[in-house]
């Protein structure tokens, strides 16, 4: 345990010293702010257009029809989640690759492993150091998002909403750590570092971008800008009735999406943030209950990564690198 | 410094028994039997690819043997690898260390991983022993190859190991660096009684440093004896180089 | 010139032996194959969804609006390819350029190479030629796959085939920009990982961040080939942001031009789309920018360093 702590502490210091992480952190914070600002403007423009149509209706002496757009502050974080999906996964990959690359480049893994340090200690120490760092990054992103919500969108959060935000950060942490362990595995198993990085990015692209994208573009509603069902004035109920006739197509589409851990992560956090409107009024335990499968998949992905890291690190021949 | 010295107890601190390592169909090390007595400076000779580094990797518990085993400092490298690691020091070929950290930070890290909880005193002693105090706060990236080598040795002896494994320690060093390294090894052996196991190509160094030698060829040990006996056996040869070539050639002819 | 051709030939040979390149190529080819089918199947289904929805409207006594999918062009089934070029093609291009810039450094033969009578110009020309030809081969392969797979699903006429090949030619120019960028950073950056990371950050900015700023698109929304609905740009702040950033949003220009070439204007957008020629010109400028970066990198790098 004390060995793990020594390794974790060094790991953390190394990360802080390297310029890459400051870059990625700043990038992530800038993206968070941009995203919340853009979303707030979009919301304001929706309110303005509602107000102006209300005004016109009143001048014509008519009663307003539709309800006023309602602000659920957490909805404004959708773009932030998109960035955590994309850039957060990259952060995980970078940390995972560099933690191994550092030792491979300097051959110091050999030195460490001739000390009385078990390979479990080594893995645990490295994971711990990086996990703490990722946790801190997420706390930064979360606080930044919160500040942007309060100061840009002028929204105040309830206690439940704050709890939801915390849960979102926790799941994001597992999601990023899963990519960390994936990259560490690739860097441990492959001889060439840049090849390992390109393979990591290829896997990232398939899971994070391509699989969800296939599901998304197969969605009938996404075929027309602004939504197909919207364009023919269908409500959710009517949409459901029509889509029920295409259940096998929808199942295939859902299956493709389920192949991607990113989609499982997205479904969970979108439910928590109420981006899917049906979850907006729901209690936290109910949301978690409904999204249990998705949460489990994200956790499983992380667990598989740790196991893969451990098994490859435990393979003694791994040290014949030079 | 308090490296334990016990020359009266002449026991085999390295005891290798039928050790083999196979990669695919090829044996890198093939049924190696080897004994090194405590307090020796053992020179492990052999051509490129003979299996010297693979042997050291197995003895330092970095690599799992395909068959056979070994005892180092009385502990089984397979079943008691942690105990073995507590008692050995290791200097790989072309030591690099963490570039962005100072010498002190590097040493502190490895000391802690060797179980020294308050390493400052040991580090200062070792740096003093190696005449390297002035590099203490320099970053590794700012050190020359020779200086880096000295910090590498410092990390290997900080925890007062019984056996020190060195893999081609002279490679890339200038004559001054080679002499300094030789002096250090002789002092460690003489003053601290440390057993030294050294893979090397440099026969002139073996003559000046080692007490016993072993010759490895294609994974097999083809000769092992004290340096004095070896030279006596081949008394018609003028230098160790001649002796070495005769041993290797004799083996090929067989 | 002779030296450049030798270097280019060596580059092409080495690239097709690299396992990571083959991996990315395999993903790209697989998605090219899949895209025609995905496009066809979703189009097919959406038509049925429209029929079912229209039927439901008629039953409740309402008039069904005309189908938004009635006059879809043949090549619209390749619309996902636009996104795959941006995603997979972009990463493939960066890794191609990066590998070309890194190859001599990693093999430690840069000094050897320049101890022969070779000028920096020979080296640069050879590398750029090699990269361009490798990507041209990739693009030709993808074009052939798309042409064959589309021909199975819909009937293509000669004009469709010309448009299809123009689309891929245009995509080639777009990808060259990324490849040249990857090449430049591989030459000048000491750290292997940083050298790859910088062009990837560029790619993220161009693919996700700029479209969010110009069109208030969610980052994952940029992956939908259906053009964005932009009436939200009535907000003056968003409008200003759009006007400022749009000229630099290369991936949007590419998407719009590529959609036009595939004959997909029918999907319609409220966005103030510029003239096709101006858009295409910007993609060409993007490629030139990458080229300029390569020139700067080759002239500034120190041959004796690696």
Q: Roughly what fraction of the amino acids of chain A lie in strands? A: under 5%
The largest sheet of chain B, given as strand count, sense and whether it forms a barrel, is: 6 strands, mixed
Main-sheet strand order of chain B equals: 6-7-8-3-9-10
- Topology order of chain A in helix (H) and strand (E) letters: HHHHHHHHHHHHH
Separation, N- and C-terminal Cα atoms of chain A: 30 Å
Strand fraction of chain B: 25-35%
Low-confidence stretches of chain B: 1-9
Sequence stretches where pLDDT stays below 50 over 5 or more residues of chain A: none
Q: In percent, how helical is the residue content of chain B? A: 25-40%
The pLDDT mean of chain B sits at 87
- Computed CA radius of gyration of chain A, to the nearest angstrom: 23 Å
**Strand segment tally of chain B:** 10
Structural summary, described in words:
The complex is a heterotrimer of chains A (322), B (254) and C (306). Chain A is an all-alpha fold and 322 residues long. Chain A has one domain (2-218, 260-319). Chain A is 77% helix and 0% strand. Chain A is built from 13 helices and no strands. Chain B has 254 residues and is an alpha/beta fold. Chain B has a domain at 9-87 and 165-174 and 200-254: P-loop containing nucleotide triphosphate hydrolases (Rossmann fold). Chain B is 37% helix and 26% strand. Chain B has nine helices and ten strands. Chain B has helices at residues 52-59, 81-86, 103-113, 120-129, 145-157, 175-192, 203-209, 227-233, 240-253, and strands spanning 12-23, 26-37, 41-46, 67-72, 75-76, 88-91, 163-167, 195-199, 212-217, 220-226. Chain B is globular. The N and C termini of chain B lie far apart (49 Å). The relative contact order of chain B is 0.18. Chain C has one domain (2-300). Helix content of chain C is 74%, strand content 0%. The longest helix of chain C is centred in the N-terminal third of the chain and has 41 residues, at 19-59.
